[in-house]
Specification:
By secondary structure, this protein is an alpha+beta fold. It contains 28 helices and 12 strands. It folds into 3 domains: 181 residues, no CATH class; 109 residues, no CATH class; 298 residues, ABC transporter involved in vitamin B12 uptake, BtuC (Orthogonal Bundle). The longest helix has 51 residues. The termini are far apart.
């Protein structure tokens, strides 16, 4: 056995004195097997490769790579072997240049020999001291699994020092046993152990075992491993079934109209075809009749009609046959694949839920400031998206001066709040407070301000997207398995959303400002009679909502592009989140964000090729939802409810 041969070689290497092991150089081995190297064949190259493996020469792997790549040449004057690069020769041991490539014979192993060399390379690399080489060998096995790799891989597992690579080798070994194991029981056991692994590699192995081919016969062969019977007319059309029979030369080929015409022309004699005058062959029935007369005389192939096709097809059984002949193996693979597909479905649902939760956290951050503003003041602020944009650009400017990305984000968050808080207060003092209880004028004014802010951003930063780079520790993704994964930046945004949820709830429930905001929200007249200044509360509330939008802009900028139009991408979703959740309620905004984020991901999953259609369907669904629950998921109270 190949495994026994490798073990004996390894034992010989251990028992052989070091001086004897190093006695033969690579050139010595090549000269011993000069004919096998210069004129390699699949039959003779194995002896040379065995000696090369037993010698343990450190240059064996580079030589095999060069040999496989047809870079090895033999010098005619002395028969020595070298590696050729352009017009120069290089020593195989030292890699040093030894002269020009004059009077040499090129060595060009054919495809079969190169495959054998590739297998030998994998065997060498599996035991290479360099872990990078061992990883490359395992990757090569994973890319193209073959039966010849089973024993070398198994022999290398116990000697593997790296725990992670050893685990991967063991996993690949199980896959190879499932594919090429010598005994049915071992293969079935290996397949059973794979039923808990939902990786793409495992599913590919099981699908390879379950590969089928379409077969047909008058009776199903005894002992055939049949995957299923195909019914002509249901599982495949009668014409398709007949075509298979024609290709297998089990039925007469169909005769086309062009072939009928050519046959009639070829058999014209004395102005007629088999007794039918040529002048009468101007319609299809007459041409078919004349052709059938020729067929009865044996001059042309018989014409096959629809009834004949059906009769011929009915005499055969069409079935899918497993390429794997062992039924026990295919039954185990089918059961394992069904189990894996169930687990994949569950994992896909979890992954979809995580995507929806991630998107909901983004929508919550974008909408919570608008919810506070809209709920307390009743102001439709179309410039809310531009406050998000201002926050993102604030983060970008901070990173210009603070190159440490972690520190810059920590500085940008409070600074973005301060910038957009100030912008919000300024906007409320100069514009909004003059337009209370005039929703149309407020909408138009804030829409104009949004356009002005976009143009201002274009004038300052240009029209190209600007980078807002996340820290290195937010790169990559948390991978649970081959189906479930979520990027660290999305996790960070989710955590930030939770922090702001807790902070806003604390402000509204545990601080004097929150008490006054709730009082103004429920009854501004009564709040004023109790000494609360509604005008001041409106100003602070608008500034608070704008400041939160700025922080949301920093978070969203880490995930999405930072441009002057980025606010437009979130303003519609923000309003939908507020309206669906319930105007002026933090928990309603959270519920609305969860509903819209989850709904959008579900619709995108159902129609992944058209995200625009997915957004359209989502809007239609929300319009329908509002018809049945106009006050949202969490109904508002006080002034917001009355309005």
């Amino acid at each position: 056995m190949l495994l026994l041969r490798y073990l004996l070689m390894a034992l010989a290497l251990c028992l052989m004195p070091a001086s004897q092991i190093q006695a033969q150089t690579l050139q010595d081995i090549l000269q011993t097997h000069a004919d096998e190297v210069a004129n390699p064949s699949r039959r003779s190259v194995g002896v040379f490769l065995d000696d090369l493996l037993a010698n343990g020469n450190s240059q064996a792997v580079p030589f095999l790579e060069a040999w496989r790549n047809r870079e090895i040449v033999q010098r005619d004057v002395d028969g020595l072997f070298f590696r050729q690069s352009e017009d120069l020769l290089f020593d195989l041991e030292t890699g040093s240049e030894v002269g020009s490539a004059d009077e040499i014979s090129a060595i060009r192993p054919n495809g079969g020999v190169r495959r054998v060399i590739g297998e030998a390379l994998v065997q060498f690399q599996l035991l290479d001291p360099d872990i990078t080489k061992r990883i490359e060998a395992v990757d090569a096995i994973a890319r193209a699994m073959e039966a010849t790799q089973l024993e070398p891989l198994a022999a290398s597992i116990d000697a593997e020092p790296d725990p992670a690579l050893k685990t991967r080798k063991q996993r690949l070994n199980v896959m190879l046993i499932a594919l090429y194991g010598a005994e049915t029981d071992l293969r079935v056991a290996a397949i059973g152990s794979l039923s808990e692994d939902i990786s793409i590699e495992t599913r590919a192995v099981l699908n390879t075992i379950l590969q089928t081919s379409l077969q047909f016969a008058q009776e199903v062969p005894e002992g055939a491993n049949v995957a299923g019977i195909l019914e002509p007319g249901q599982d495949l059309t009668v014409d398709e079934a007949y075509t298979y029979l024609v290709e297998a030369e089990l039925a007469d080929a169909l005769v086309t109209a062009a072939q009928i015409k050519d046959s009639l022309i070829a058999n014209i004699s004395d102005g007629q075809v088999s007794g039918t005058p040529v002048g009468e062959l101007n319609n299809e029935p007459t041409r078919i009749s004349a052709y059938q007369a020729l067929a009865s005389e044996g001059l042309v192939p018989a014409l096959v009609d629809t009834d004949s096709i059906a009769d011929v097809v009915d005499t055969f059984v069409f079935f899918l046959q497993y390429e794997e002949s062992d039924a026990a193996v295919t039954n185990a693979a089918t059961e394992a694949l069904n189990t894996i597909e169930s687990q994949v479905a569950v994992s896909q649902a979890i992954d979809l839920g995580l995507d929806g939760l991630s998107l909901a956290s983004i929508y919550f951050l974008a909408a919570i400031g608008l919810a506070i503003t809209f709920g307390v003041m009743g102001v439709i602020n179309m410039a809310h998206g531009e406050f998000i944009m201002l926050g993102a650009y604030t983060g970008y400017v901070v990173q210009i001066f603070v190159p440490n990305y972690t520190l810059s984000i920590l500085i940008a968050l409070p600074l973005a709040f301060a910038v957009t808080f100030g912008a919000g207060v300024t906007m409320e003092r100069l514009v909004i407070r003059h337009l209370y209880h005039r929703p149309l004028e407020t909408l138009l004014a804030t829409f104009g301000i949004s356009i002005a802010l976009q143009q201002l951003a274009k004038n300052i930063f240009g029209t190209q997207a600007r980078p807002l780079t996340s820290p290195a520790w937010l790169d990559g993704a948390l991978v649970i398995n081959d189906v479930i994964s979520i990027s660290y930046i999305r996790i960070a945004i989710f955590v930030l959303a939770l922090i702001f949820l807790a902070l806003i709830v604390f402000i509204l429930k545990r601080t004097r400002l929150g008490l006054e905001v709730r009082a103004v929200t429920q009854n501004s007249g009564m709040a004023a009679s109790m000494g609360i200044n509604p005008d001041r509360i409106n100003m602070l509330t608008f500034g608070l909502g704008s400041g939160i939008a700025g922080i949301a802009g920093v978070a969203i900028g880490l995930y999405a592009k930072v441009t002057s139009e980025m606010g437009s991408d979130y303003i519609v979703q923000s309003f939908m989140t507020v309206v669906v959740g319930g105007v002026g309620n933090v928990w309603g905004t959270l519920a609305g964000a969860g509903m819209i984020g989850g709904l959008q991901k579900v619709i995108e999953w159902m129609n992944p090729s058209n995200t625009l259609a997915a957004q359209t369907y989502m809007i239609l669904f929300i319009i329908l939802f509002i018809q049945f629950r106009p006050k949202g998921i969490v109904a508002p109270k006080g002034r917001a409810a009355a309005e």
